[in-house]
């Protein structure tokens, strides 16, 4: 189950505040121990509550004092190179949160702009918009117009670099000229007729046809296919 994200404000209930401090302190010291082991660094942690005289020193008061003395033995210029000042840390957090807020507001303005444009297209009068809506149109409109112009230029470039299709091969036949199939040779025609005569389906169909002379198809005087010589 995911942990519930808590707001960055002071907890009003003192009992709950102490409980959170104890749990978070245990987690912090555990992560500090892991970091010191994994990265082979010396870390000292001090946690002091204003209303209490004692402070929590990690890993122990003696080790913390030794590590602090080792740090102070370095020249001040060397110490300040990697020293993280709390004020600068908070300023960086404020800048990050401000940038995130600005992006979120910009995203909402973009959605509001699209919604207003759809309403105006459907017939809503611009005089019905309030001041905030007009400000959204004025602030987002130029950017949307630039985006449309950029997209149009990209499409024009794609059309210019588009490879044309292969040219259509023109036929040598004139428009009014009729194409006539080449006649079959007598040998080929005779072979086709023999195939039809020996075809059972064709023979069955032709056996039931009566010609104008009154003779059946299979008679000698009206035989459609002359006997093979």
From TrEMBL:
The residue ranges of the MADS-box domain are: 1-47
Which CDD domains did the record assign? Answer: MADS_SRF_like (cd00266)
Q: Which InterPro entries match?
A: MADS-box/MEF2_TF, SRF-like_MADS-box, TF_MADSbox, TF_MADSbox_sf
Protein localization: Nucleus
Alphabetical UniProt keywords:
DNA-binding, Nucleus, Transcription, Transcription regulation
Molecular function terms, GO-annotated: DNA binding
Entry-linked SUPFAM superfamilies: SRF-like (SSF55455)
Q: What protein is this chain from?
A: MADS-box transcription factor PHERES 1
Look up and give the organism this protein is from: Abeliophyllum distichum
